[in-house]
Amino acid sequence: MDNISPEKANEVLQDQAEKVEEKDLEKVLKKQEKIEDKFRNNNSMSGYFEKAKSMFSLIRDYWSGNYRQVPWKTVAAVAGALLYVLMPLDLIPDFIPIAGFLDDAGVIAACLTLVNDDLVEYEKWKVLQDHSEEA
Fold first, then answer.
1. pTM for the full predicted model
2. How far apart, in whole angstroms, are the C-alpha atoms of residue 72 and residue 75?
3. Do the beta carbons of residue 12 and residue 107 sit within 8 Å?
4. pLDDT value at position 112?
5. What is the mean pLDDT of residues 98-119?
6. CA distances (Å), origin 7, targets 3, 32, 85
7. Which of 62, 123, 126, 135 sits between 20 and 30 A of 51, alpha carbons compared?
8. What SS3 class is residue 88?
9. What pLDDT, on the 0 to 100 scale, is given for residue 1?
């Protein structure tokens, strides 16, 4: 993250999260494949791919009403971070090789730091749900 400081990433994340409305959750879910491709295809973001899948799952379960034991600020931060990754012209435009994705990775890292406890609780809940469906 040489091109974006953790403080700047957090500032960008907070700004994005403040703009998120519940209708934006549907937009994130519709663009999931495109956003996930950015995680898969860029070395600076590939390490976050599994967490990104959890982030999408959290949004999907929140959107459907299956999981509401999470503060809106967590959902907004996750959606804001994922929407930021989707934006081609962000702090450092994505068409700039390597550096263009470092800001995306910084915003995702800031988001994961901010929402880690809530995401871990969601992941535990999800495992329990998956096991109860198998039984």
1. 0.81
2. 5
3. yes
4. 93
5. 81
6. 12, 27, 17
7. 135
8. coil
9. 39
DSSP result, 94-129 = TTSTTHHHHHHHHHHHHHHHHHHHHHHHHHHHHHHH
* Average pLDDT for the chain: 83
Q: Is 102:44 a contact under the CB 8 Å cutoff?
A: yes
Structure-token pair, residue 22:
């519940």
- Give the count of alpha carbons within 13 A of 125, CB side only: 16
Q: Give mean pLDDT, residues 111-129.
A: 94
Q: In whole angstroms, what is the distance from residue 18 CA to residue 129 CA?
A: 30
Asked whether residue 106 carries a pLDDT value surpassing 90, the answer given is no
Give the residue ranges of DSSP H helices in 1-135. Answer: 6-19, 22-30, 32-41, 43-46, 49-64, 72-86, 99-134
